[in-house]
């Protein structure tokens, strides 16, 4: 009779855990994979590479493109169930007026948002363009304005109160490098704002969040609150948000298993750095979001672009 791999129910959790010993193998040193190639070129096998972030001949065409992709990001949030009443906001810096950003109106469901719904607000809080039928979210303005002021390299900011991000935030802990996906947030690419000052209705809390994000941060876990991500494009910031939310979910599941005696095996620093160099690249993150954009375009026949 062939030997069985089934573990008896009478065996202890400790015995099961002890029986699972990760095997370390020798890996070649990384670096050659990206020699003379961008991460996007390295990811694309063969002679044809995915197109990265597009370029535009004028501000008007780039602005419309940004607004359409911003609306698609909200539609994606709806499909992922990142919705709780009026909470949650995205901002995108205007391509022409760098001291102003577009954001969503307060009180409109993410699943209904279109490009024409967005509001243009300057960094002093004045509405200077776009939709004037609904106001922007005060908390949204204060958080996003602080980040845009502190980080001129950032063109888009996403903040929401999704379930697993909120759940992990209560521990006030960073994500561990447990999976390939979480490596996007290695080192100073993510941080924890380890305080909570209530609903953001004054500038101080927004400034503290921007400070916690830091000069190189791609994401920040806001304790007892939610998640915040940034990017060169709204596509990058939106994809990083989904990736951080799912990494929080994985962390919670891993912690639950670890509480029953199973040992976590983190990714080594070298492998985590290599994954970070590839997976967190702005062009890669932009392309990652296009699968969601294309789905939304197909399902809605482009309704969100209007």
TrEMBL record:
Domain Class II aldolase/adducin N-terminal positions: 68-252
InterPro entries named in the record: Aldolase-II_Adducin_sf, Aldolase_II/adducin_N, Aldolase_II/adducin_N_sf
One Gene Ontology term, aspect cellular component: cytoskeleton
Matches recorded under SUPFAM superfamilies: AraD/HMP-PK domain-like
Residue spans crossing the bilayer: none
Top-rank lineage group of the source organism: Eukaryota
GO molecular function, one term: actin filament binding
A Pfam family recorded for this sequence: Aldolase_II
Matches recorded under NCBIfam families: PRK06208.1 (NF004855)
This protein's name: Class II aldolase and Adducin domain-containing protein
Species of origin: Colletotrichum godetiae
Source organism phylogeny: Eukaryota, Fungi, Dikarya, Ascomycota, Pezizomycotina
